[in-house]
Amino acid sequence: AASREGRNPRAPESNGAAERREPDTKKDRSPREVQRLWQRPWLRTAGLGAGLVLTTLLLWSNLGAEDGVTEVLARRGEVVAGRFIEVPCSEDYDSHRRFEGTVPQALRIAEKGLSLGGSDGGASILDLHSGALSVGKHFVNLYRYFGDKIQNIFSEEDFQLYREVRQKVQLTIAEAFGISASSLHLTKPTFFSRINSTEARTAHDEYWHAHVDKVTYGSFDYTSLLYLSDYLEDFGGGRFVFMEEGANKTVEPRAGRVSFFTSGSENLHRVEKVHWGTRYAITIAFSCNPDHGIEDPAFP
Q1: Annotation marks residue 36 as catalytic
Q2: How far from 162 is each of 68, 165, 191, CA to CA, in Å?
Q3: Tens digits of per-residue pLDDT, 66-125?
Q4: Which residues of 80-119 are buried (b: 16+ CB within 10 A; e: fewer)?
Q5: Which of these is catalytic: 166, 194, 239, 279?
Q6: In the chain, what are the domains?
Q7: One GO molecular-function annotation for this sequence (predicted)?
């Protein structure tokens, strides 16, 4: 090894021959020498520091490894066309009303209308377009049945809110599927639903059977549901289930959540039975055929 001045150190003599040795390696030191060196404060501090750095590097390496601890959302060599990750809102937004406006008002419309009747079984509907309302084991036209009293139940603001919700849903569907909103036509039936755990009395109460909307309602091309109550907070059961081979896909209702899909046989689905509480939602459907279109409901 070269000395600091660049000259080679003088080699010790051994049996008349020169033997080159590295100066002061750990293997040449006695245990006492090593102990004395370790007891020097600066050396001990350096050793602890090196150990801490090594431990930190190992922990960082483990956290960054693909061992289930870390999920890679976008890899370097990947071209991501569009990826959305839903995370719970923090408490930073507590100063804002969570569902200010649309959902509470829409829920009040459903509650007011369905308070006029309701099925004897577990499923009731209110259709502001046709006036259909579940009453006992039958349906009545609430506009004819209650006449002018309707104006004491609903207001023009209620119908305006309904139109605004329909428009927002229509625009969202058009954007998601890459089509023009003007090519979507509101179609019937479009209704509020209320489901509870009451035993079914008629076939209309048996909402839990798997079905295809295009078969049940011939005019449907796109189906949407706006949920007005929360799964596991307002009711149990009642999840929306897409029936697929291998594994079903389930949507858990949340007030303000909109779920929409094409209405054909590619989306066979059902709703689980509600076990407790009350599940509210609005079903709004659209057709691509203008002949199947209907106007927004108007305040009587």
Answers
A1: no
A2: 45, 5, 11
A3: 555 567 777 778 887 777 777 776 666 454 444 445 889 999 999 999 999 999 999 999
A4: eeeeeeeeeeeeeeeeeeeeeeebebbbebbeebbebbbb
A5: 279
A6: 70-79+99-292 (2.60.120.10)
A7: L-ascorbic acid binding
